[in-house]
TrEMBL record:
It comes from Laetiporus sulphureus 93-53. It comes from the Eukaryota. GO terms for molecular function: hydrolase activity. The keyword Nucleus does not apply. Residues 142-434 form the AB hydrolase-1 domain. InterPro entries: AB_hydrolase_1 (IPR000073), AB_hydrolase_fold (IPR029058). Keywords: Hydrolase. This is Alpha/beta-hydrolase. The keyword Hydrolase applies.
């Protein structure tokens, strides 16, 4: 039985941002880097033995969209609940105050030039053919706020299983899974250079820089260096103008990742063949009332209060299983989160790779989602869109997704996963994989497989 979809809504909400929309800061040619950091985590193997897993680093875009701003004072934990709550609120208020200064134009200092790195996992088929012979797809996946790149692996495994069961309907040659500069292993590399402000536009710019300057020209099973080489300005310009010569690129983004991919594609559409958007955080500007909604503010507070350290992974698993937030996750996703979302703590035990303060900073950035809502109707209609949205939605967001999936109606479709909430990747990896597989088979499958 197929999942339902949202029909065209009776009410539509168009562009709402009252101020001119920001352009992405143009990319500058990446400078050669002398000091190259090592990977912070040991190599891993992928559970599907037909693919080789390697991890790579590439420079993030520089300068950044925001100036160097110090981290706000961290909340001071105390067993006194009222004192702890007050400390968390002071940090949340400082984050919000800095954010409003940015939006009001009070932080006009030059963008930070501290070196940052993006981390990416590459999954390549062992038997992939050369560029002239292969007709396989390249997938590019980007995560939600607070999660490491590996959070995609359970869904990707199910997708590969479905593709292989389809007996050659289409081929997935290579998968690149993105990790933003303040998440997972990328955070461990960048911790000393991350400040107190993060703009989602920089995630968009980092994605574009990777796809234009660092994504290898050909798909090959040969080993790649940890630090991917930078392509020439001429090739980057060619990709921006004409797209990839030897790849068919499908981008898949969840939440933060979905918004970032959409905004990147609005800026440089030729890089993308199609986009699968898994409940992206793209929202209409409120027009009246605070830019930081009460719900968003609660996300900031929740991130600041998040437990960061445990005596062992076993204790962390026990606590996660007791939590309503984690208890609805697919067990395979929880396993990978425990493996790759945590790291050894020098003080003993284990801790989150990404501290809650940085998750809170990401939550506080709402301008890019507002602007992307306004701009999505201008996304090149040659890029097919597949929206995958949850059936369980908070009452205050009633109607938003129904309108969002129709903001650019041409060459687009949507599907609802009824039993899932916003964290579809975590709660329903098998159902998500089946929807992605159906889309890829219909659009890219060999003619006989579409009958």
């Amino acid at each position: 039985m197929s999942n339902p979809s949202h029909p065209h809504p009776m009410k539509e909400v168009g562009r709402l941002c009252p101020t001119p929309l920001r352009e992405l800061i143009p990319l500058e040619s990446p400078e050669s880097v002398v000091s190259k950091p090592p990977l912070p985590s040991p190599p891993r193997t992928f559970l599907d033995a037909s693919y080789i897993l390697t991890t790579h680093l590439v420079p993030a875009a520089s300068p950044r969209s925001t100036p160097d701003v110090p981290l706000p004072a961290l909340p001071t934990w105390t067993p006194d609940k009222e004192q702890w709550k007050a400390s968390v609120m002071r940090t949340a208020e400082e984050i919000a105050s800095t954010r409003y200064k940015q939006w009001d134009g009070e932080l006009a200092s030059p963008g930070s030039t501290k070196p940052l790195w993006v981390c990416a996992n590459r999954y390549v088929r062992k038997d992939v053919l050369g560029a002239e012979e292969s007709r396989g797809l390249t997938l590019f996946a980007a995560h939600a706020n607070g999660f490491p790149k590996e959070i995609w692996e359970p869904a990707l495994l199910k997708l590969i299983e479905a593709q292989q069961a389809a007996q050659g309907a289409y081929a997935i040659d290579e998968i690149w899974v993105w990790e933003a500069v303040n998440h997972g292993d990328a955070f461990l590399v960048n911790a000393g250079n991350l400040g107190g402000m993060y703009d989602w536009q920089d995630n968009c710019r980092d994605i574009l820089q990777f796809l234009m300057y660092y994504l290898p020209i050909d798909v090959t099973a040969s080993a790649l260096p940890t630090h991917l080489p930078c392509h020439s300005e001429a090739l980057a310009h060619h990709r921006k103008t004409y797209g990839h010569q030897t790849r068919t690129l499908i981008a898949i983004g969840h939440s933060l990742g979905g918004c970032s991919i959409t905004r990147a594609a609005i800026s440089v559409p030729k890089l993308f063949s199609s986009i699968v958007l898994v409940d992206p955080i793209i929202r209409p500007h409120p027009r009246e009332g605070p830019l930081l909604s009460g719900r968003t503010y609660q996300y900031v507070i929740g991130a600041l209060q998040r437990q960061n350290q445990w005596s062992s992974r076993e204790e962390a698993r026990k606590r996660f299983n007791e939590s309503p937030f984690f208890s609805v996750w697919d067990p395979a996703v929880l396993d990978i989160y425990l493996e790759c979302g945590l790291c050894d703590d020098p003080n003993g035990g284990v801790k989150l790779k990404m501290p809650g303060i940085h998750e809170a900073l990401v939550f506080s950035e709402v301008m890019t989602p507002y602007e992307t809502w306004d701009l999505v109707d201008s996304l090149d209609t040659s890029i097919e869109l597949k929206w995958i949205v949850p059936g369980k939605n908070p009452p205050e967001e009633a109607g938003v997704r129904e309108m969002l999936v129709w903001r650019r109606p041409e060459n687009a479709s949507n599907v609802i996963i009824p039993f899932a909430g916003h964290l579809i990747v975590q709660e329903a990896p098998a159902a998500l994989a089946e929807e992605i597989h159906s889309f890829l088979q219909r659009k890219y499958g060999f003619p006989a497989s579409r009958l």
